[in-house]
């Protein structure tokens, strides 16, 4: 309360304070069904912090609308006449100018390949349409929670909040990149991470002389599809980690959805050692146990890459890795669907680079090639 307002309050005068109002999350609905568009619009409009600003019946209409209107989230169906939602997804991400995409479709049932493909193409999240056994009548609440979770990252910040974010960004301090021989790459990601993983892996040299480990927050049913998608995109043999599996250079091993990915030495070999105990982050699989394990095995040769995701998973493991001489790279805010995990690492001063995924891969390629670091 200001000084003059406090004085008036002491004098018994009514004082009205106008608190800043958070901007509404602006949403476009893209679905070929008029009924679905109407139902989704009613559900969203029932929440005071959400606003439907555009409706489109085809992918083409959505792309045209994005040229003229600013939105925070595009709610996208998969199966539509002409260009499907998945086919249009990369263009929607490009024209959306930072808008997040939530794919809502009956094709996105648990374990469906459409889920992983949508996430890999740039969707921030997926959600199955309500059906038998889905959400027990709570779909409206689940949808609103999901929109809030991914939408705030796309809302333009103004005033004091923008200044605070700019000041926070200005104090991020980069560490020197170690020049040790690469022992391994350990990638951690969550919401928006599949697209980032693809960009990073595709930008790596074909030969790096080291294994790659991935912990991506996904349910166990997605893991076989996820591993196949990563193998196709990266051109590297990819396996879901199993207890005792021997680690090979140039190979990618992903954490199973029901256990943390760890490592152990067995003579001259490194083997997978899974664990299912609680992690501080509350995630399973969690990035932290993976980073602690690669620190123990590879030490100064370990490089962690923290990509898009909500929360702070990976922060504790990154701190321990840096203390042991390893390196940490973080995705930047502009390219992240949710700048939570990489932000925690960057603002803690643990990162040697904060860049888009492909540029992080190029930095790492320069280290592998022995280039000078600036």
CATH topology of the largest domain: Rossmann fold
Per CATH, the architecture of the largest domain is 3-Layer(aba) Sandwich
State Rg. Answer: 23 Å
Helical proportion? 25-40%
Number of domains: 2
* Quaternary structure type: single chain
Approximate shape: elongated
| Overall strand count | 14
Order of helices and strands: HEHEHEHEHEHHEHEHEEEEHEHEHEH
How many DSSP helices? 13
Q: What is the fold's blueprint, element by element?
A:
Blueprint: H1 3-10, E1 25-30, H2 34-45, E2 50-56, H3 59-66, E3 73-76, H4 85-95, E4 100-104, H5 113-120, E5 125-127, H6 139-151, H7 159-170, E6 184-189, H8 193-203, E7 212-216, H9 223-234, E8 238-240, E9 252-254, E10 263-266, E11 269-272, H10 287-298, E12 302-306, H11 315-323, E13 327-331, H12 341-347, E14 353-355, H13 357-368
Helix pairs in contact: 3-4, 8-13, 10-11
Brief characterization of the structure:
One of its GO terms (molecular function) is methyltransferase activity. With 374 residues, the protein is of the alpha/beta class.
Features:
374 residues; alpha/beta; Rossmann fold; 2 domains; seven-stranded parallel β-sheet; five-stranded parallel β-sheet; 13 helices; 36% helix; elongated
Provide an overview of this structure:
With 374 residues, the protein is α/β, with parallel strands linked by helices. The strands form three sheets. It has a seven-stranded parallel β-sheet with strand order 8-9-7-6-12-13-14, with helices on both faces. Strands 2-1-3-4-5 form a five-stranded parallel β-sheet, with helices on both faces. The chain has a two-stranded antiparallel ribbon with strand order 10-11. Helix 12 links the parallel strand 13 and strand 14. The chain is elongated and about 65 Å long.
